[in-house]
Amino acid sequence: MDGIKRVDKKIIVRTNVLCEILEISDRTLTDWKRQGLTQHRRGWWDLKHVLKWRGEIYNADTEVSKSISLQQKKLEAEVALKETNNELNKLKIDIQSGKYLEKEIVETELSRFFLIFKKSAMALARKLAGEISPYVEPLEARRIEKGLNETISDALEQMSVDGVYYAKKTKR
Hints:
By secondary structure, the chain is mainly alpha-helical. It is built from 6 helices and 3 strands. This is Terminase small subunit.
């Protein structure tokens, strides 16, 4: 057959025959050559070598399979890089659109909020003691105020350390 011959137990094919067998253009074959596919000689290709290089036939011991493996790893790394870059671009857009706040601003605002909250919570015991003082003895009003202060202080301490408040069980 024209364009196919046997050389040293190898099937060697002309460029046009190889393109026809693999259903590719000669441009694709030229690109493969730039990527590392070797020719048997100018215009002639070792069919088995090309198929191994393309991954159509597997042979773990050859340099061809190693280059395929490296090409696959390179391709996977490029895909991962593009995905990471896309995520980074989305994050930059979110930052520019105001979805995220600067850490320093958040810390300052939260510190201010919790300081005001603490002052308000600590004033609650005095306010409640003042409200009940006409109905109870002054000594009892101070005892209630002290108990409320301890409960509020304990709650604030637990929230600042653990983030959760567990009320102490009272004896009855």
